[in-house]
Amino acid sequence: MKEFASITVHPEVQDGAPVFSGTRIRVETFFDYMRIGVSVNEFLDEFPSITRDQAMEVYSLIQSHYTLAQIASMITGPQFETAVGEGRIIAAA
User: Fold this and answer.
1) How many domains does the chain have?
2) Is 38 contained in some domain?
3) How far apart are CA 70 and CA 47, in angstroms?
4) What tens digit of pLDDT does each residue of 42-92 get?
5) Is residue 2 a part of any domain in this protein?
6) Tell me, what CATH number does 71's domain have?
7) Which residue pairs, CB below 8 angstroms and at least 24 apart, start in 28-37?
8) How many other CB atoms are found less than 10 A from the CB of residue 53?
9) Is the pTM of this model over 0.85?
10) How many other β-carbons are positioned within 10 Å of the β-carbon of residue 49?
11) What DSSP state is assigned to residue 45?
12) Between the CA of residue 27 and those of 45, 57, 74, what are the distances in Å?
């Protein structure tokens, strides 16, 4: 399990989806913004509670082609899994 200062996963926050630490903003939102061509600066303008360091740490994961499920797994270990077709991370029963 790798430590990421910028990402938190907790079952009671955003249904267990990876979020930027100290916020309720999903990492998935950042992925979506990057996918449609929004710059990191524009994203930070839209979400001022996220620091540039947080955004750049997650951006490096995107550049390394990690998926949301892989990121959640790296942070939490194997007790989390992706709900098929929903694009959300949920706690395994």
Assistant:
1) 1
2) yes
3) 24
4) 999 999 999 999 999 999 988 888 888 888 888 776 554 444 344 444 444
5) no
6) 1.10.10.10
7) 28/68, 28/87, 28/88, 30/55, 30/58, 30/59, 30/62, 31/62, 31/68, 34/59, 34/62
8) 10
9) no
10) 11
11) H
12) 16, 11, 14
